[in-house]
Amino acid sequence: MPSPGVAAVDRALSILAAFEDAPEPMTLAELARRTKMYKSTLLRLMTSLQEFGYLVQLADGRYHLGPTPFRLGAVYQRSNNLHDRVMPLLRQLVADGAESPSFHVRHDARRRLCVFRVDSRHSTLDRVEAGALLPLDRGAAGRVILAFDGEEGEAYDEIREGCIAVSFGERDPDCAGLACPVFGPGGKCVGALSLSGPKPRFTRDTIKAMSSLLLKTAIRLTRTLGGPTDLLDGAVAASVDDARPARRARR
C-alpha cells in the first residue's frame, strides 16, 4: 500500500531505516541494495541528510548515521522521562540476581523496540542491546505486547490471564526469556519488562523466582506511570500459591 506522505520524505526515511540492523557503515552500493533505489537518487537524498547531520560520509567513502539521530534520542528521553523511571528498576533487578532486564515497546506492526537494557552480572549473556528492533511474534516480550494489544488465540489468552510469558529458543536457540506487561493511564499496555539470558539458567525454580521479581517490578513501574496494577497484583498472588512453572510461550 503506497504511503500517504511525501514520496521524497518517505525515501529519505527509508535510507535512515536501512542503518537500523547494519552492524557496520555501508557503501553506496550496499545502500542501493538495501533500499532498492538508484544510486543517483540516493546521492541526491543523502546530500540533504548529510547537510542536517543525519548521515556522515567516512574517510573510506562509506556512510553511517550522523550525530542528529543521537541528539533526537536524547530529546526523546528527556521529554518522556522514561529513562529516569525505568533504568533504576532494571539496575535493581540485576542487583537482586536476575538475568539481564530490558524494557520493550511496540515499534510497528511487526517489530518491537528495546528501549532500555542492563546486562546482568553473569559472564555469559544473550545478545540484546538498547535500540535493537526485534520481532513481535518471537520472544516473550513481543508476545506480551501482542497479547495486551488484543491478539487472538489460546496462547495469548493465557498470557493475559497470568501476565507472564516465557520463551525458549525462539529468536536464539541458546537463549530464553520471560516478560510481563507494564500499564499506563487507562490500563493501556505501554510496554513489556523482560529478563533474558542463556537457556540453561532458565530452570523451573529460577523462572518462578524471576517471575515474582519481574511482576513486582512491573507493579512499581505501572504505579509510577499512573496505570492500574490489579492484573499484576493478581498475578503475584497467584504465583505465591501456584507451584507450577510460569506459563510458557512456544518452545
Task: Provide structural commentary.
It contains nine helices and eight strands. The chain has 251 residues and is α+β, with helices and mostly antiparallel strands. The strands form two sheets. The chain has a six-stranded antiparallel β-sheet with strand order 5-4-3-8-7-6, sandwiched between helices. Strands 1-2 form a two-stranded antiparallel sheet. A hairpin with a 6-residue loop joins strand 6 and strand 7 (175-183). Helix 1 crosses helix 3 (39-51) and helix 6 crosses helix 7. The longest helix is centred in the last third of the chain and has 21 residues, at 204-224.
Give me the secondary-structure topology:
Blueprint: H1 7-17, H2 28-35, H3 39-51, E1 55-57, E2 63-65, H4 67-80, H5 82-95, E3 100-106, E4 111-117, E5 133-135, H6 140-148, H7 154-162, E6 165-168, E7 175-183, E8 189-198, H8 204-224, H9 230-241
Antiparallel strand pairs: 1-2, 3-4, 3-8, 4-5, 6-7, 7-8
Helix pairs in contact: 1-3, 5-8, 6-7, 8-9
How would you concisely characterize the structure shown here?
The protein is α+β, with helices and mostly antiparallel strands and 251 residues long. The chain has 9 helices and 8 strands. A hairpin with a 5-residue loop joins strand 7 (175-183) and strand 8 (189-198).
Distinctive features:
single chain, 251 residues, alpha+beta, 6-stranded antiparallel beta sheet, two-stranded antiparallel ribbon, 8 strands, 44% helix, disordered C terminus, WH_DNA-bd_sf
